[in-house]
């Protein structure tokens, strides 16, 4: 079966006074229904790998594939960043509606329906500054879903949250992934977060050093 997304022997070198190798010959495949953790300490390369998969970073060498073909664009891929990364002067509704407007063919649900999925209809007219950290992450998830994503890439989505809020956000991601059927990849330094997924690929110094099936 063809992988949904794949990196083959990907290396990323950031040029400067001293070159930094962020990824070193990394190979990764994500199937259409995968739930994958990219596990590693800060600086291990996990965020760079997410960005390569999503088209935010071009590799120095190696191949990036989408449904078996060289990836021409990041259509079908959405991000949830560590801090939510919401538009600060847009309400929760406007953040989701803006993403839906950019989506060719329209979102699979209306913005208010997406906010309802993440339990935030009552906060639709609130600005990000009026939301808690967990609520901002839930808006970011609704915004990502508005893009009709087949692959959701999450970069430390619970990194700024307390443990109880983090659990609720992870429960939500798990429930939505099962309902909507997208593939899910989460970059994390936390083994407890990784343990909630089906597979963990551990990175160290830009290399994938271990792949473990968890469920």
Short description:
With 215 residues, this protein is an alpha/beta fold.
Describe the structure.
The mean pLDDT is 88. This protein has 6 helices and 10 strands; from the N terminus they run βββαβββαααβαβαββ. It has a 6-stranded mixed β-sheet with strand order 6-7-8-3-9-10, sandwiched between helices. A 4-stranded antiparallel β-sheet has the order 2-1-4-5, with helices on one face. Helix 2 runs parallel beside helix 4. The protein has one domain: Rossmann fold (3-Layer(aba) Sandwich), CATH 3.40.50. By secondary structure, the protein is α/β, with parallel strands linked by helices. It has helices at 46-54, 92-102, 111-117, 133-145, 163-180, 191-194, and strands at 5-14, 20-30, 35-39, 61-66, 69-70, 77-80, 151-155, 183-188, 199-204, 207-213. The chain is globular, with a radius of gyration of 17 Å. It starts with a strand and ends with a strand. 29% of the residues lie in helices and 29% in strands.
Rg measurement, Å? 17 Å
CATH superfamily: P-loop containing nucleotide triphosphate hydrolases
Annotated CATH topology = Rossmann fold
Distance between the termini: 20 Å
Which outline best applies? globular
Residues in helix, %: 25-40%
Order of helices and strands: EEEHEEEHHHEHEHEE
Helix/strand-derived class?
alpha/beta
Arrangement of strands in the largest sheet: 6-7-8-3-9-10
- By CATH, the architecture is named 3-Layer(aba) Sandwich
Total number of β-strand segments? Answer: 10
Q: How many structural domains does the protein architecture include?
A: 1
Give start-end ranges of low-pLDDT stretches: none
Largest sheet: 6 strands, mixed
CATH class: Alpha Beta
Question: What fraction of residues sit in β-strands?
Answer: 25-35%
Provide the residue-averaged pLDDT: 88
Number of helices: 6
